[in-house]
Write a structure and sequence with these properties.
Length: about 130
């Protein structure tokens, strides 16, 4: 079995010392902060790249590393109903020297990125669904 579909660039798992990893993680954290309307930290589980695509998946924590509280955020109602996680996922596409946000899912309880290959043309192997 091939590690990725023919014609698709290899999947690279970026490491914390890589400047691209740090840039993508920082961008994903800022998107999460904007969505939640409060300071949060992103603990990346994966920062992967395939060609001009990148995918960041991580767990959100309150500032200082405490367990994420959604009280007072736009997600408070969802959290009270058990319909929110602590997960943040962001799909990026390289745009010149930088990275553009293609799609994101904040606090999903399912695989919210399942249709991103169809909607955006992102490689399935990058998203862990192919």
């Amino acid at each position: 079995m091939e590690p990725h579909p023919p014609g698709q660039p290899d999947l690279l798992s970026l490491q914390p010392q890589d400047p691209v990893y740090r840039s993508l993680a920082r961008l994903a954290a800022s998107l999460a902060q904007a969505a939640l309307g409060k300071d949060v930290e992103l603990d990346p589980e994966a920062v992967d790249r395939s060609g001009h695509w990148a995918f960041v998946r991580g767990r959100l924590r309150d500032a200082g590393g405490a367990t994420l509280s959604l009280e007072g955020t736009p997600f408070a109602g969802q959290a009270a109903a058990g319909a929110a996680s602590d997960l943040a996922v962001v799909l990026f596409r390289q745009d010149g020297d930088g990275w553009a946000v293609v799609d994101q899912a904040m606090l999903p309880t399912g695989v919210a990125w399942l249709d991103w290959p169809r909607r955006h043309g992102a490689p399935t192997h990058l998203l862990g669904i192919g």
